[in-house]
Amino acid sequence: MEYLIVGLVGLNILLVLFVLISRERNKGEMGNQVLSTLVDYQDKQRHYQSQEFATLRENLERSLGEGLEKSRQTLGQVMERLVKVDLAQKQISSLSENVVSLQNVLTDKKTRGIFGEIQLKQILTQIFGEGLGRTYDLQKTMSNSKIADAILYLPEPLGVLAVDAKFPLENYRKMVDAEESEEYRNTAKKEFNRNLKKHIDDISGKYIIKGETSDQAILFLPAEAIFAEVHAYHLDIVEYAAKKRVWLCSPTTLMAILTTVQALLTNIERNKHIDKIHLEVNKLGEEFNRFDERWDDFDRHLSTVFKDVEKIGTTRRKLSDKFNKIINL
Fold it and tell me: Which of 216, 266, 214, 268 is nearest to 241 (CA)?
């Protein structure tokens, strides 16, 4: 580009000289030679400028082409990201609808109870599989006409263990709401304690039946946050539940307990089979001893038979020799 500008400036200077020399062209042959030289120089400059313009246009076209290609690639990447963003937005909207639906479910006390029962059923099914009626029962009616959410059939000395789901969510929300006043939250805390103790009393009175169930029962809290809150800041409730022989469980702790119970039941069944195996092995040993005795008897009889066969063979050979002698005579 710099060479092009210099060439243009030189061309202008030559044009000026051409004009001045044209005025003096009548002065003789020297003026004609100078004019011819200037024309040649002008032709060379035009050729050089044409090459510079061609090179400049080629570079410009290449730069524009590369820029357009990069722009196309960038646009494609932007479109892909926009598609992903749109998909994520739809998933967020769906999740928001599900959260709102869950909040509506948990607002009503009855639906909260159903939610706890469903979660309890899912945990039992996940741990024990198709053990309904054998390892556990759902909505079992007791002898006092009370209905337990679940009954576990455990080995002695535990026996029958009742599990009931409770979901004290309303006062818990008020108690942990930081936007409310301290007095409001303290009142909700007292109500929360009172509700939990009432649930403990109900379970202890309804589902611990002498001669029918174990001397203990389980209160299932479907929310991990409530379970953590109780054990962190309400130790008086934990102690009260222990006195009533009612154990508080969250989904995680209940799964841990039931997994341990499942392992215990598996070991018991395995021990039963091991006893059967030992019994069958002992019977097999007795049969093997009987077989050994009979084989010895058979071996003795077989030896006697061999001896008798040998004696008969000897007699046969003697008879054959005598018969041959008679024939020869």
Answer: 216
Q: Are strands 147-153 and 160-165 parallel, antiparallel or unpaired?
A: antiparallel
Select the highest-mean-pLDDT range: 86-95, 234-243, 277-286. 234-243
Residue 76 has which token pair? 């494609």
Do the domain assignments include residue 103? no
Q: Read off the pLDDT of residues 168-221 as tens digits, 9 standing for 90 and up.
A: 777 788 877 778 788 888 888 888 889 899 999 999 999 998 888 888 999 998
The contacts found for 307-316 with CB under 8 angstroms, 24 or more apart, are none
Q: What whole-number distance in Å separates Cα of residue 219 and Cα of residue 60?
A: 80
CA distances from residue 315 to 89, 308, 319 in whole angstroms, order as listed: 111, 11, 6
How many Å from the N-terminal Cα to the C-terminal Cα in the chain? 150
Count of domains for the chain: 2
> What is residue 244's DSSP assignment?
T
Residue 177, helix vs strand vs coil: coil
The residue range of the domain holding 137 is 109-329
pTM for the model stands at 0.52
| Cα-based angle 247, 248, 252 (whole degrees, multiple of 5) | 120
The DSSP symbol for 211 reads T
Residues 177 and 28 in one domain: no
**CA distances for 13 relative to 18, 41, 45, angstroms:** 9, 12, 12
- Beta carbons within 10 angstroms of residue 136's beta carbon: 23
Nearest-angstrom CA–CA distance, 76 and 115: 47
| 8 Å CB contact between 210 and 110 | no
Q: Are residues 117 and 163 in the same domain?
A: yes
